[in-house]
Amino acid sequence: FLADPFLIEYSGEVFCFVEDYFKDEHKGKISVLKVVGQELQMLGVVLEEDFHLSFPFVFKCGEDIYMIPETSRANAIRIYRASVFPLQWEFVMTLIDGLGAVDTTVFEVRGKWFLLTSFCSAGIGDKSSELHLYSSENLLSKDWTPAANNPVIFDSRKARSGGLFQLEGK
Q: 125: alpha, beta or left, given left = phi > 0 and alpha = psi -120 to 50?
């Protein structure tokens, strides 16, 4: 099945990145589809690891396009860069190691980067109950500082991220 769709426009075309779950392998991979009018054209798997991948948060930063997929089974938040968009991706670095977080998103505000992610600090496995905020001066940094009031949301009904969206530039 396909899940967690993320759209991005590139050179006048729209692409949809998704978790592509392979039941026989018991793991997700990241695939991309091209949006052509009302149709979707499957281009195929673009990112695969030895562990499960999902929630392919794709975004532009300068001239580069990055992806932060969910890599909680690797116990890390990892970032990838498109080497040949949309089909080829390369691992750049681990942003936060030792954290089995899910549904990570990043955004920039006035030159400072913010990272939102969900994990269970109580160790009971409810990764939907806590939303945590981190900040950094640089996107590609291992120096992400947790907010003093983490978790910023502690409520299983609304803490897990569903991604970011823009409407009319806002």
A: left
Give the mean model confidence (pLDDT) for residues 133-153: 95
In tens, the pLDDT along 28-55 reads: 999 999 999 999 999 999 999 999 999 9
For 73, the token pair is 């089974």
Better-predicted residue by pLDDT, 27 or 164: 27
60-91 burial, b at 16+ Cβ within 10 Å, e below that, comes to eeeeebbbbbbbbebebbbbbbbeebbeebee
Q: What is the Cα–Cα distance from 101 to 148, expressed in whole angstroms?
A: 18
Q: What's residue 169's pLDDT?
A: 74
d(CA 170, CA 34): 25
Distance CA 31, CA 54 (A): 10
Three-class SS state of 23: helix
The answer to pTM > 0.85 is yes
Token pair recorded at residue 51: 């562990």
Q: Which residue has the tokens 């947790």?
A: 146
How far is residue 19's CA from residue 17's CA, in Å, rounded to a whole number? 7
